[in-house]
Structures are given as structure tokens and as C-alpha cells.
Amino acid sequence: MPSLPFSARVRATTAPPIPAARQWAALYNGDAGPMLDLTQAVPGYPPHADMLAKLAEAAVSRAAAGYGPIDGEPGLREALAAELSAFYRSPISAGDVAITAGCNLAFTMAMTVLAGTGDEVLLPTPWYFNHRMALELLGIGTRALQTRAEDGFIPDPQRLAAALTPATRAVVLVTPNNPTGAIIPPAILAEIAAICRARGVWLVLDETYRDFLPEEATPPHNLFAEADWRDHVVQLYSFSKSYCIPGHRVGAILGGGAFRAELLKLIDTMQICAPRPAQAALCWAIPALAGWRAGNRAIMARRATSFRAAMGAAPSWRIDAMGTYFAYLRLPEALPDGLAVAEALASRHGLLTLPGSFFGPGQERHLRLAFANAPEESLAALPERLAALDICATA
């Protein structure tokens, strides 16, 4: 019996990349040692013990079993607003914050507010694949802006301005970037924000990895210091990486004014409220675990150093970009495209990575490695496994 029809948009959207890549690992026989999984960006260390205790305490609370405020627990919104105000050195209030069931849903809801059928959103490539998938599922057009390795994968403001069309409703920037790890400098962000404001286009900043920025004396940008930022800027954030709780699904949207009024309609429809036990625990964790989070940033910095040192023993593989969570590697010329290479590395050499083709057009000669997942001693195995593939290619 033939299948009943499905949504054309859903059918046209590619399968989730990470589960697809992990199917290759099922073919690995273990000859090279334990599987080294550098696919999904998950913290490579456990949550704080007190955080787990707070989660457990909240989970058995009768209060947390009921519906909560649509835009999130007031205590969490206030705690996040206070932290953001200090971090960006700009006045941000709890009224600017909405709590969501993860950052992917935050993106989907924000895009639903800002654009619709016939509109388009500009995504620099390489892009975060779930952003592209969400737009396709919503029926919103994606306009790609190619960034270049020679520019550090930083969007060029003038090329971005030239790419905007009358149908463009928003520009999405991820900084620190997924998949490249690149950090967009404050001056570039300011220039892009000015272009978007002048052209009547929203700027959406996904700053999921902001807590892993190198510690500096100045904030990563000054956009929230502008009096009218609520009229043209939206920020997305995830608690998953910083607090090691991706399974609890808590994210946030920073936005005010008319955008917020429309956003509340989406939140009520798509989630009603974010998970309440995790929100209760995070109210405590934001101020209480500041030192622990700083220690984790130092752990990630050491892993980045270890990764770069390990790659020195694999000179045919070039690091085109790197941050404190990801590295974006260019394949040696002798190897085939990234999809074939990623499959071979996983199935034959026990190294699970994501091919660049998962991150948009023109990325076929790259691999993304989420080295933050792995302890430093595991990263030492990288050169041998990459070299094994080089030998196979030249044999």
C-alpha cells in the first residue's frame, strides 16, 4: 500500500547530520583503539555536583510540575539579565529575556517572528546545519554568503551588504562560530549591525559559545549599549554547554519591544513554558558557579592547545580555523571529498568527525572536529588516525 503524503518541506529537508555520521561508527571494528567521537559539541566533563543536586531537588518539587510563566521563571530571567549586563557592560533587564526549551527552538521561534513564506534569511557559510534545516522546514528562503578561509571565515561587511535583497528579513551570525570556531571582531559586528539597521534587516546573533571566549578586558561587542538595539538586534543563547546540561533543554532569547510582543505568541504556541526544574537550578547556578565556569573555560583552552600541538604531527592536514570548541580542517589534496573521508575515518580508523558538506555549499574540502569533547590524552591519538588515512590514499 503506498504511503500517504507528507509535508513537501519536511521531505525536502536532509536527515539530521549527526545521527547519519554515527551510523559509520557502527562499522568500526576497534583495530585503531577506542572510538574518538568529535562530532557533536557536548561538554567533555560532567555537570557540577551541586548543580545535579539542585536539579534533583527541583525535579521532585510539586511546584515545578505545573505550568510556568510563558517567558520563563522570573528568578532565572533576572539572574541572566544581571549577568548579561555585567558581561556586555550594558543595561539589560529581565523584560528583555525569554527562556526557551533549548537554543534550536529559540532560533526556530525567532525566525518565525521575523520572516515567512517568500522571505529570506542570510546565512554565512559554513553555516550551522540546524539553522539551515529550520529555515527550510519553515518555508523561509536561505541566502548563502560565502566566507573565506583567507579571511578567517569572518563575514566581509561589504560583501554582506551586497548580498542583501528586498526579500532579506534577517542576517544570522554565530560567534564564536559553529563549525569554524571563528570569533567575529567587535568592529566587524558593529559595521554589520549598522548595515542591517540602515537596510531595515534584523541582526540575529547566536552566542551559544560566548562563555568559552578567551578572557579579555572588553566585551565581545557593544551592540547592547545602543539605545535602539531592541529594534534591530536579537540574541540567542544556550545553557547546554556552559552548565553541561544539554539534555535538560534550556536556552534564551534576548530581545525587546515589538519583537518580544510577537515572540510571546510563538512561545505559548510552541512550548508553553521551558522545563521548570532546570530553570530553578539555573537561578542558583548563574551566580554560584561563575568560578566553576571560568575553570571550564581554562580546560577548553588547554584542549585547544593540545589539539594544535597534536596536529603538528599531521602536517598534511591544515587548520583553516579554530576556536575553543571546534577546529575546521582542510583535507590534504590527495584525499577525496570530506564526506568520503569522514566515513572512512569513522568506519576504518575510529575517528568520528563531520564533513564540511554538512555545513553548506563549497565546504567539501573540510572536516569539523569538536575537540572540546575529548580529554587531552585522547587528542594525542589524532595524528596516527589521520596519517592512516593518508597512507591508504597514497598506497
Describe this structure in words.
Helix 2 (17-25) crosses helix 13 (338-349), helix 3 packs antiparallel against helix 11 (276-288) and helix 5 crosses helix 6. The chain contains 15 helices and 13 strands. The chain starts with 7 loop residues before the first helix and ends with a helix. It is 42% helix and 14% strand. It comes from Teichococcus globiformis. GO terms for molecular function: transaminase activity.
The average pLDDT score comes to 93
Helix/strand class: alpha/beta
**Arrangement of strands in the largest sheet:** 2-8-7-6-5-3-4
Main sheet makeup: 7 strands, mixed
First CA to last CA: what distance? Answer: 49 Å
Low-confidence stretches: none
Alpha-carbon Rg, integer: 21 Å
Helix share bin: 40-55%
Element string (H = helix, E = strand): HHEHHEHEHEHEHEEHEHHHEEHEEEHH
Number of strands: 13
Descriptive tags:
13 strands; 42% helix; single chain; four-stranded antiparallel β-sheet; seven-stranded mixed β-sheet; alpha/beta; 395 residues; globular
Brief overview:
This protein has 395 residues and is of the alpha/beta class. Helices cover 42% and strands 14% of the residues.
Give the arrangement of secondary structure elements.
Layout: H1 8-12, H2 17-25, E1 36-37, H3 49-59, H4 74-88, E2 97-100, H5 103-114, E3 120-125, H6 129-138, E4 141-146, H7 157-163, E5 168-174, H8 186-199, E6 202-206, E7 233-238, H9 240-243, E8 251-254, H10 257-270, H11 276-288, H12 290-311, E9 318-322, E10 327-330, H13 338-349, E11 351-352, E12 354-355, E13 366-369, H14 376-379, H15 382-394
Parallel strand pairs: 1-11, 3-4, 3-5, 5-6, 6-7
Antiparallel strand pairs: 2-8, 7-8, 9-10, 10-13, 12-13
Helix pairs in contact: 2-13, 3-11, 4-11, 5-6, 5-10, 7-8, 13-15
